From TrEMBL:
Belongs to the glycosyl hydrolase 28 family. Keywords: Cell wall biogenesis/degradation, Disulfide bond, Glycoprotein, Glycosidase, Hydrolase, Lyase, Repeat, Secreted, Signal. It holds the Pfam family Glyco_hydro_28. The active site is at H241. This is galacturonan 1,4-alpha-galacturonidase. Its main location: secreted. Residues 1-23 form the signal peptide. One of its GO terms (biological process) is cell wall organization. It comes from Suillus subaureus. It is found in: Secreted.
Length: 423
């Protein structure tokens, strides 16, 4: 509009109609060819007020990464199936390329973006063909699945991911995200382990995760530094490494995590249920984190908090002379009910070294809670309403060093039987 020249009413109406126009782009499909280039070629016409539709009854070949430009008021609808390349080398080539965006599907900046799958059992799946990667223990140049980087106002619903190669949803720097009714199936057909198939990584602010169903081989949810106001509820996690916060403070980094609530979730045959991890020598703090109403079924470590994390397969713990640790404050574990897997000789599938990366010196395998803390850095860490038994029937234990805590943690802080206290 040219300043100073008042527009007539009809002209204004016409202008509003154009500005309000919604367009729909049905992504074309060509048999036996990569469907990414055609979408990328057309997308500049559909970056605002548009629907981008992968139509039903079609299997799209996403044989090269889909790097979305900045989108405003756009929904991406996955009604058909999407398939990654079946060639491992092809995927690796794109991941290794200098212009790789950081994920097979990436969204950067933008506002009001919806990614919507469906509930049809036959269509709407994104197939990563991960099994062959797991069978070969192929871990070179694996792609992240979906990256939302610095995007505001995002809805991700009804997505269905089948055998992803590795990590699934990442959210670095994004805000106001609502993830619901998503399914991630990263279970292996045999003993080959689906390494690093993390479900959701919360790396931004104001995120709500509801009714997500995850079967995988790493964290179900991982809350990373920079996260604030994260709620996860009504979930199901199977085979995973838990509802995790961390790891924080690697190499002395300054971490910040605040206001996290994980509630009403079933943890089925997972390694951990609730987990916090920070590296020795970290800085910063994790404050106000609650896990509540957690049902755990045959879980090895229902509650595990460590300020002393390291990859044990890389050798002995780093000898840190640092006086600093990532501080933890106001952690609550409330109403955990379930069964600890203390089957003698049981080894979780991600354990491929001796000792296992998750080995805890001195643990008996019957611990409902392990607190591995540094003195003067943990404030108000409490467990309450925990009801656990072991598969073997042996008494439930705890691991805790009383010289590292400053409050009644809700159970007798020792390496011994689990005995509740007023908390
Ligand atoms: C998909 O195929 C089914 C079965 O052939 C048909 O009933 C349905 O209408 C098709 N849907 C679309 C959107 O083409
Ligand atoms: C956000 O995008 C949706 C489509 O996904 C659209 O229906 C809605 O009007 C948009 N919101 C605003 C405020 O423009
Ligand atoms: C990356 O580079 C390749 C080769 O130059 C090119 O074909 C492709 O379009 C580029 N991808 C992006 C997302 O820029
Ligand atoms: C869609 O993909 C899923 C997962 O790979 C598969 O089980 C399903 O059979 C596919 N649908 C069709 C119609 O091929
Ligand atoms: C899983 O099956 C694949 C294909 O049959 C095979 O190559 C692989 O060795 C199997 N993995 C294990 C651990 O048995
Ligand atoms: C926290 O996030 C939720 C979900 O995105 C949002 O509705 C709520 O307003 C946020 N709370 C604060 C205090 O920002
Ligand atoms: C320890 O913390 C202090 C105060 O925050 C900071 O100045 C110092 O750089 C930290 N030291 C290391 C090794 O991270
Ligand atoms: C702690 O976090 C919860 C849930 O995210 C939030 O509702 C509450 O306001 C936070 N408390 C404080 C003191 O910030
Ligand atoms: C737990 O997982 C097993 C398969 O590993 C399944 O058979 C069982 O039904 C699951 N339990 C629940 C409560 O979902
Ligand atoms: C308990 O913690 C203190 C302080 O870090 C440490 O000196 C001591 O060795 C720990 N005791 C055990 C049994 O780990």
């Amino acid at each position: 509009m040219v300043a100073g020249i008042p527009l007539s009413f009809p002209v204004l109406l016409a202008y509003a109609a154009i500005a309000g126009a919604w367009s729909t782009f049905v992504v074309p499909h060509t048999e036996d060819a990569d469907d990414t280039p055609a979408l990328m070629a057309a997308i500049s016409d559909y970056t605002s007020d548009a629907s981008i539709v992968f139509e039903a009854n079609t299997t799209y070949n996403v044989w090269s990464p889909l790097t979305f430009p900045l989108l405003t008021n756009v929904e991406v609808v996955i009604s058909g199936n999407l398939t990654y390349p079946t060639s491992i080398e092809t995927v690796q080539g794109y991941v290794a390329a200098a212009n790789y965006s950081g994920a097979w599907f990436s969204f950067t900046r933008g506002n009001n973006v919806t990614l919507r799958g469906n509930t049809d059992p036959d269509w709407g799946w994104v197939d990563g063909h991960g099994q062959q990667w797991w069978d070969l223990m192929q871990q070179t140049n694996r792609p992240q699945g979906w990256l939302f980087k610095d995007v505001t106002n995002v809805i991700i619903r009804d997505m269905k991911l089948y055998k992803p190669i590795a990590w699934n949803f990442a959210t670095t720097g994004s805000s106001n995200m609502h993830f619901f009714n998503n399914i991630i199936l990263a279970g292996s057909d045999n003993a080959s382990f689906p390494f690093n198939t993390d479900g959701f990584s919360a790396g931004g602010t104001n995120m709500l995760f509801e009714n997500n169903h995850v079967v995988n081989g790493d964290d179900c949810l991982t809350v990373v530094s920079g996260a604030k106001n994260i709620t996860w509820r009504n979930g199901y996690c199977e085979g995973s490494h838990g509802l995790s916060v961390g790891s924080l403070g690697e190499g002395g980094q300054v971490a910040s995590v605040e206001n996290v609530l994980c509630e009403n979730t079933i943890m089925n045959r997972t390694l951990y249920a609730a987990r916090f991890k920070s590296w020795t020598g970290g800085n910063g703090a994790a404050i106000n984190i609650t896990w509540k109403d957690i049902t755990f079924i045959d879980v090895m470590f229902p509650i595990d908090v460590t300020q002393n994390y390291w990859d044990q397969e890389d050798g002995p713990p780093p000898s840190s002379s640092s006086v600093n640790e990532t501080h933890i404050e106001n952690f609550l574990f409330d109403h955990f009910v379930g069964v600890i897997n203390d089957t003698p000789g049981y080894v979780e599938g991600s354990c491929v070294t001796d000792p296992c990366w998750y080995y805890v010196p001195g643990a008996t395998g019957k611990e409902a809670v392990i607190f591995d803390l540094y003195p003067d850095t943990a404030t108000n860490i409490v467990v309450k309403n925990l009801v656990a038994r072991t598969l073997s029937g042996a008494p439930v234990a705890a691991m805790c060093n009383s010289s590292t805590i400053s409050n009644d943690v809700g159970f007798v802080c020792w390496n011994g039987p689990y005995v509740p206290t007023p908390g």
